From TrEMBL:
<dbReference type="GO" id="GO:0002476">
    <property type="term" value="P:antigen processing and presentation of endogenous peptide antigen via MHC class Ib"/>
</dbReference>
<dbReference type="InterPro" id="IPR007110">
    <property type="entry name" value="Ig-like_dom"/>
</dbReference>
<keyword id="KW-0812">Transmembrane</keyword>
<dbReference type="GO" id="GO:0042612">
    <property type="term" value="C:MHC class I protein complex"/>
</dbReference>
<feature type="transmembrane region" description="Helical">
    <location>
        <begin position="198"/>
        <end position="221"/>
    </location>
</feature>
<dbReference type="GO" id="GO:0001916">
    <property type="term" value="P:positive regulation of T cell mediated cytotoxicity"/>
</dbReference>
<keyword id="KW-0325">Glycoprotein</keyword>
<keyword id="KW-0490">MHC I</keyword>
<keyword id="KW-0391">Immunity</keyword>
<keyword id="KW-1133">Transmembrane helix</keyword>
<dbReference type="GO" id="GO:0009897">
    <property type="term" value="C:external side of plasma membrane"/>
</dbReference>
<dbReference type="Pfam" id="PF07654">
    <property type="entry name" value="C1-set"/>
</dbReference>
<dbReference type="InterPro" id="IPR050208">
    <property type="entry name" value="MHC_class-I_related"/>
</dbReference>
<dbReference type="GO" id="GO:0005615">
    <property type="term" value="C:extracellular space"/>
</dbReference>
<keyword id="KW-0472">Membrane</keyword>
<dbReference type="GO" id="GO:0030670">
    <property type="term" value="C:phagocytic vesicle membrane"/>
</dbReference>
<dbReference type="InterPro" id="IPR037055">
    <property type="entry name" value="MHC_I-like_Ag-recog_sf"/>
</dbReference>
Amino acid sequence: QSEDGTHSFQLMCGCQLREDNTTGRGFYQYGYDGQDYITLDKATLSWTAADVGAQNTKRKWEADRTIAKRQKAYLEETCIDALRRYLRFGGPSLTRADPPTVRVTRHHGPDGDDVTLRCRALGFYPADIKFKWEWEGEDVSQEMEYVDTRPSGDGKFQKWASLRVPQGEEQKYVCIVDHDGLAQPLAVRWAPDPSSSIGLIVGAVVALVIITSLVAGFVIWKKKKSGAKGGKYSHASSDSSLLVKGCKLVLGKERGCVVS
């Protein structure tokens, strides 16, 4: 704390251990009030000042080279030993790699001309994952929008990246996802939902059944209507007669037709 208020002085350091058990780059840097302040150059045992205010600290620490030597020893020995110990304690829970489940969905925009393809990766670990969109082999990732990687609540992670595309050209675009849990990058395209096609088929069949029933009902109604026009018939006696097309048919012992 000084006369003009309270200030913060932060330290961030880290080391790297490769899969073949060799060490990689390490870093040792300080910040002041949330901004970079001064950083150790491990190779030359010198310090890099981020602003004018750090120049005084740079001169002071480089005058005493033991400060840089201690920090270098920490990065190459103490930090590496601690990292190996954490990896041994954590075991498979730290070294596991769960591959993502990837799916591309389509969403209509407000204007109706363009649609949005959303590439969603779920259930992966560790959190580092890469997305790329391609159009017929051409990288169009600079146009995509994405959200930061988020925890799923079960120890795994989720993330999505979206891209606006012209309607009707959805299947020309492919989402490529790369993750440590995958043997090779996974390429996924949008595919129409099969259930929508089944729904159309079922709807067409139902409509056909309804139309067939209406036609059959109309034919039956017409036949009944035509039959009603013929009048009512009763059993004829032996002496009865019928008028058929202008000819009086005499029934009985003597059968014949008398034109009236």
